From TrEMBL:
Organism of provenance: Phytohabitans aurantiacus
Taxonomy, superkingdom: Bacteria
Keyword Amino-acid biosynthesis among record annotations: no
Subcellular locations according to the entry: Cell membrane
Keywords linked to the UniProt accession: Cell membrane, Membrane, Transmembrane, Transmembrane helix, Transport
ABC transmembrane type-1 domain residues: 67-292
Protein's UniProt keywords contain Transport: yes
Protein name: Sugar ABC transporter permease
Length: 303
């Protein structure tokens, strides 16, 4: 039995590994090659130009504007989403206090979990269409219709370059919070209730219980959430494509790298340059994930 173990493992893994190499690794390698060519999507033998596309990237103001937008998304999206999700998860799991010696969530917590998670079942394109009506520039829009009650003139949310990207961030947060409420709720459910009960007996309030009990014991989950949300910040193409003015406008105020890759490939037929942007996006994402895991690493607390 022991001698047949390794052939069994190899045979079991052969098909998934082959599929992964074919549909994941091979396209990555092809993208790296195309990034060093001037391919325009037509020629079967594109000209090899080395690192010229990457040198062009370094001098491309639109590329750097998109990178700056990703930097803002990397700060705002994880911070706001995690803060809101942690708050709601805490309320849904232990916010109701001790009842009969058992820590419980607020009244109706099961219903609230469903409400918070609902945006996750909607496709991102549908969410974009919904928020087109929310952000509509006249009083037919949800927000401007509400502001009209107070006599406030309509706000051009997506046509104002100073607030358009923040409007995009708000949509991404709204779409993401529900998943992380569920994720953090699962993490809190794994924390022994007697720890909360002991903290209550010691006179700890809800604030102290949150910061001194919940946060340290939930650190690994927070670390994973930060990485996932950072990757989501690099992958904001769909919502920008649907919701923004003129695909990343106005005047590039909401453009992201995914948008510029799409534009260069399918509008300008510069597939080689678009591939170079894709390679840059790949390394930015990998670097962010590695740095986040390194900086946020800490000793695991044993329960």
């Amino acid at each position: 039995m022991r001698h047949g173990k390794y052939p069994f493992i190899v045979g079991f893994l052969a098909a998934p590994v082959a599929l992964y190499v074919t549909f994941v690794i091979a396209p990555y390698l092809q993208a790296f090659y195309l990034a060093m060519t001037n391919w325009r999507g037509v020629s079967a033998n594109p000209k090899f130009i080395g690192l010229d596309n990457f040198q062009r990237l370094l001098q491309d103001d639109v590329f750097w504007k998109a990178v700056r937008h990703h930097g803002l998304l990397l700060l705002a999206l994880p911070l706001v989403t995690i803060a809101i999700a942690l708050f709601f998860a805490f309320l849904l799991n232990v916010g109701g206090g001790s009842r009969g010696g058992v820590m419980t969530g607020v009244w109706g917590s099961k219903f609230y979990r469903f409400v918070f998670f609902f945006p996750q079942v909607l496709a991102i394109v549908i969410i974009g269409v919904i928020f087109q009506r929310v952000y509509a520039p006249d009083d037919s829009g949800l927000l401007n219709g509400f502001l009209k009650i107070f006599g406030i003139d309509p706000i051009l949310f997506m046509a104002n370059g100073r607030i358009a990207l923040w409007a995009i961030v708000a949509v991404l947060v709204w779409q993401s919070v529900g998943f992380y409420v569920v994720l953090f709720s699962a993490g809190m459910a794994s924390i022994p209730k007697d720890i909360y009960e002991a903290a209550t007996l010691d006179g700890a309030g809800r604030g102290a219980m949150f910061f001194r009990v919940t946060m340290p014991l939930l650190w690994d989950t927070l670390q994973v959430a930060w990485v996932y949300l950072g990757i989501a910040a690099f992958d904001a193409f769909a919502i920008v494509q649907v919701l923004s003015v003129d695909q990343g406008g106005p005047d590039g105020a909401t453009t992201v790298l995914g948008m510029e890759i799409y534009r260069n490939a399918f509008s300008y037929s510069q597939f080689g340059y678009a591939s170079a942007m894709g390679v840059a996006l790949f390394f930015l994402t990998i670097t962010f994930a590695a740095l986040t895991l390194r900086v946020s690493r800490r000793e695991t607390i044993e329960l």
